[in-house]
Amino acid sequence: MKTRLAIIALILVVSFTGCNRKKGAQQPVQPAETPEERRRANEEGFRKNIPVLDRTIVMQELEQIHLYFYTAYSASGKWPKDFNAAREQMQRDPDMRKLLAKVDEGTYVIVGIPPEGGILAYCTKETTVGFFAVTTNKDFPQYKSLDELKQAVAQQKR
Questions:
Q1: Is the pTM of this model over 0.85?
Q2: What gap in Å lies between CA 115 and CA 139, rounded to an integer?
Q3: Residue 35: its pLDDT value, please?
């Protein structure tokens, strides 16, 4: 009986005292997070905590870039001269706009006029196993350093 009374008294005391907030005092309002900011925060968190997801995201985005340029190659028989030639069409496609933003911020680099089997695009962010690129044959070579990757791109331009 005493225990029940003690619990009831505790509940009443807590309910009457509240949470020490003064009446009329407003809490500072934090700006609302945009969906884009939330998506970026989630992606960065997942990349940090789940390394295999990091590699998967990079390879999937490089595959999308390859697919886009391969479609242009299939139509004309030539790889696009440079990225600017395809920019206008990429802006029309909502999915490609996201990749276009990543290209603009420097996450992905598109190599102009690759030779057959050469590097078409690469990622400048290091994954847990190194740096990835995509070739015109849709292979995903892996490099240990960004300098090694850039050296391979420079050699293919010769």
A1: no
A2: 14
A3: 85
